[in-house]
Amino acid sequence: MSVIQSCLKVVQLAQLVKINRDKLQLYAQKLVKENRHIYKKFDEYNFHLNQQLGDENLLIYLFVLDSMNFCFWPEEGFEYENLAQLIKDKLINNPQYFQPEQFAKLEFNQFKEDLFGGKDFALIEERFKFLKDGAQVILSDYDGKIENLINTANQSALILLKILTTKFIGFQDHSVYKGKQTYYYKRAQIFIADIYASFDGKGLGQFYDIDQITMFPDYRVPQVFNNYGILEYEQNLQQKINQKQEILPGSHEEQEIRASTIIAVEYLKEEFLKLDVKLTSIECDWILWQVGEETKDDLIPYHRTLTVYY
Questions:
Q1: Most buried among 33, 96, 221, 299, using CB within 10 Å?
Q2: Given 143, 218, 297, 298, the catalytic residue
Q3: pTM of the model
Q4: Catalytic: 89?
C-alpha cells in the first residue's frame, strides 16, 4: 500500500482533523495571484552544499542531513538551516569525516564533540544511531558508495523509496492507526527529493516517477494549513497546539494531522491545475515550507511531537 492510499484511509476515518476544501481552493488562488507558487531552488540556499566536492560527497551530505533532519523544536534557536550549515562546514573542512568507512568507526562522544561542541542536543543519540546504521548498510551492501545505492533503483523514486525504508531503520516512518498500517516516510522521501533537486533532475537526480513522491509530513506545512483554516482541528486538539502542549507520537491526533496534510497537498495540486499551474507534490511542499519559514513568527503555533521521524 502506498503512502497516499494509507493516509487516505486515515482521513476517511479521522474524527479530530478535517480538510476544508473550500478554504484550500481559496488559498491556492491566493498563492498563484501573489506568485507564491514559484519556489526557491535547492542551491539558492547558502546553507546547502552544492557539487563543489563532487557527486559522492554531495550524496553523503544529503544522506547525513536527511538522516538527522528531525525534531528541532526542543532546541531554541537551532533549526534545519543550522544543521545543514553545520554538516556543510564539516564536510568542507574534512571531506573524509562522513565517509561510511570512517564514520562506521566513530564513537558517539567524539561525534557529539565534533558536531555539537559536546553539548546535549535533542535526540542526539538517535541521530548518531541512524547515521552509524546507515554507514554500515552502505558499506556492507553498496561497497561504501551512496552512488551505488542510488543506481540500484534504476532511476525510480519508488524503488529507491522501498530500498531506503526496507534497509535503513532511520527511514522506517510508519505507524498503526485504528488497526491499519499507515506510511508517512517523511525523511526517506525528502532524501529522494533532495537528490532530485540538488542534481536538477539530471544524472543521479533523474527519476522517471518523481511525481509519485508525496509531500514530507512534518510540522511546518500543517501549521500553514491550520493557520489558514485548511486543516480544522477538534477543539481540544486545537487548544493543545495553541498552548504548545506536546502531542504524543503515534497518537490519533498526530497521525490525523500528518495524514491530512499529505492528502491536503494532493488536493492542492488539483486546485493548482485548475489554475493552469502543474506542480508535483514535492514542489507544493517546497512552496508551503518556504511560506511557513518566511512567516513563521506570524502563524499560530505548530504541533509539538518528540519524534525521530520529523
A1: 221
A2: 218
A3: 0.96
A4: no
